[in-house]
């Protein structure tokens, strides 16, 4: 959580979690109530200030997805509050989740211990004292573990597109393309997710890999760069990439064939690109507008 704090400072389900070892001044364990639906920001209930003597975690609900892999990518939504007064320090639910590598060095020892052995879909409560190496102040944190690969129903692709196979961890491998490349943008869902539809101007969190049509050589891959990436579907992004992801749903895996005429050429790149993109999260303009109005 040190990196989380550094960044901050520079099914309906509720649970009441009593954390043994996190004692108040009178010796009674502090009571922290976590409520809120899965997929939405948690609401924390407690009476500050909390006196926390050592880092302790509790599973609010377990995950039903893949088990987290030590040293592998992990994607987190979180809410971090100061236990002294209950003030918000940092949260990700109103924008995009944060990717990490599951190591003590990357997420801190306290959060690493809390996440180890957990599965995608878990919600975890973590209490950390001010004396921890993680934090300069006592803190209350709720973490949701999100998927790092697409989920949903498989879709049969049209003929003529490169074959895609998935590794054990979900990383796509794209077969060498055959024949002449298309002369316009091709958008082909491979997995249809059940999440929100991506809007124009959204900020998305994705995993992606890509090859060049001419020889099947690698173009770029988040899978080989530590995990998911977030970016705005606007300036600085391949136009074909932005156009291809709009109106797709979160959870989907989408193949994009982007010829130079559709915005695939960047810098010295002149080849048609084949990208396979897993859409893991999206912060839509309509969501942000609703939050501001609320």
From TrEMBL:
<feature type="domain" description="PPIase FKBP-type">
    <location>
        <begin position="201"/>
        <end position="263"/>
    </location>
</feature>
<dbReference type="InterPro" id="IPR001179">
    <property type="entry name" value="PPIase_FKBP_dom"/>
</dbReference>
<comment type="similarity">
    <text>Belongs to the FKBP-type PPIase family.</text>
</comment>
<protein>
    <recommendedName>
        <fullName>Peptidyl-prolyl cis-trans isomerase</fullName>
        <ecNumber>5.2.1.8</ecNumber>
    </recommendedName>
</protein>
<feature type="signal peptide">
    <location>
        <begin position="1"/>
        <end position="20"/>
    </location>
</feature>
<dbReference type="InterPro" id="IPR046357">
    <property type="entry name" value="PPIase_dom_sf"/>
</dbReference>
<keyword id="KW-0413">Isomerase</keyword>
<dbReference type="Pfam" id="PF00254">
    <property type="entry name" value="FKBP_C"/>
</dbReference>
<dbReference type="GO" id="GO:0003755">
    <property type="term" value="F:peptidyl-prolyl cis-trans isomerase activity"/>
</dbReference>
<keyword id="KW-0732">Signal</keyword>
<keyword id="KW-0697">Rotamase</keyword>
């Amino acid at each position: 959580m040190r990196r989380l704090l550094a960044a901050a400072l520079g099914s309906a389900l509720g649970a009441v979690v009593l954390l043994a070892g996190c004692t108040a001044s009178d010796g009674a364990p502090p009571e922290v109530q976590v409520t809120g639906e899965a997929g939405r920001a948690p609401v924390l209930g407690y009476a500050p200030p909390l006196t926390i003597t050592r880092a302790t975690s509790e599973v609010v609900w377990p995950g039903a997805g893949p088990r987290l892999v030590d040293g592998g990518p992990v994607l987190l939504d979180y809410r971090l509050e100061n236990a002294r007064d209950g003030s918000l320090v940092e949260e990700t639910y109103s924008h995009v989740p944060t990717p990490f590598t599951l190591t003590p060095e990357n997420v801190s020892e306290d959060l690493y211990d809390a996440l180890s052995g957990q599965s995608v879909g878990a919600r975890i409560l973590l209490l950390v004292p001010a004396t921890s190496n993680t934090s300069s102040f006592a803190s209350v944190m709720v973490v949701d573990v999100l998927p790092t690969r697409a989920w949903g129903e498989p879709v049969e692709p049209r003929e003529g597109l490169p074959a895609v196979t998935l590794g054990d961890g979900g990383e796509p491998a794209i077969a060498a393309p055959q024949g002449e490349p298309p002369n316009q943008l091709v958008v082909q869902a491979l997995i249809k997710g059940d999440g929100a539809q991506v809007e124009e101007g959204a900020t998305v969190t994705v995993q992606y890999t890509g090859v060049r049509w001419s020889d099947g050589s690698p173009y770029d891959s988040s899978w080989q760069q530590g995990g998911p990436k977030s970016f705005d579907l606007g300036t600085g992004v391949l136009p074909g990439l932005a156009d291809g992801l709009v109106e797709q749903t979160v959870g989907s895996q989408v193949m994009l064939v982007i010829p130079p005429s559709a915005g695939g050429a960047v810098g010295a790149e002149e080849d048609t690109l084949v990208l396979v993109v897993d859409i893991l999260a999206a912060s839509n303009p309509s969501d942000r507008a609703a939050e501001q109005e609320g």
